[in-house]
Amino acid sequence: MHMQKLCFLIIILLFAITGVAAAHPPARIELTYTEQSGELGTTITHNVADPATHFVREVVIRKNGEVYASENFTGQPSPDIFTYRYQIPLSPGDEVTATADCNIGGSVTARLSVMPGQTGSSSRAPGTTPLWVYHAVLMAAGILCIMAAGLMPVWGKRIIGWYRLHIVTAVAGIIFLIPAVILVFRVSYLSVSPEVFAVHIILGLLLIVTLFAALLLAVIRNRSGPRKAAVRKVHLWAGRAFIVLVLINILTGLFSVGVI
Fold this sequence. Notes:
Elements: H1 2-21, E1 28-34, E2 39-45, E3 56-63, E4 66-72, E5 81-87, E6 95-102, E7 107-113, E8 120-123, H2 131-155, H3 162-184, H4 194-220, H5 228-256
Antiparallel strand pairs: 1-2, 1-8, 2-5, 3-4, 3-6, 6-7
Helix pairs in contact: 1-2, 2-3, 2-5, 4-5
């Protein structure tokens, strides 16, 4: 019965991750700025079957990190490529970002730094997968492994060799998490909500501390003598705290990049 619950929980998590992966964000957004007219052009590529039901619902323009303009839509002008234009005064050295948000799920962000005396442009190449997707996939794989490792002592003791499996899944989770943590420092400028992204980073650091605390306690538990039971209890609570923080951090991460 316990193993059935464990499998059911893992299946739910896999379906949730699959749902995020299936979100259909705009494929590309290109920014062009004409210094003479002060006009910012946002050319968006979002291929859909019906632009009345599946469309870019919002475009947010930020100037030097502050929201300058936000526009909501109930459809998109064409089923593939279209352009919205905005009047925005920019000076050399200013940075402008534009985020296009799909009504079904997902978003794309591009940024443009204005150079003196030239019309600037910035785009993300068609078909390029945003770095935050790789970060999310690696994090999801690592988290699933570590959650499986954490639940094994509670629900998996009937499995032959469960302790070895507990260790292997924990190590595999760490291997996935290391590149995921490295990637997070390369995706921050794609965040559509810098404040939430900052919370995501702080929670991520707490996750790392909690994870290493749990691993350290697991290593020293058998050498703790009469305190072994107390160390084991703290180890279990560290694992539970890790799982709770993971769930919260997933939500903050998805919110910060505009998926939810």
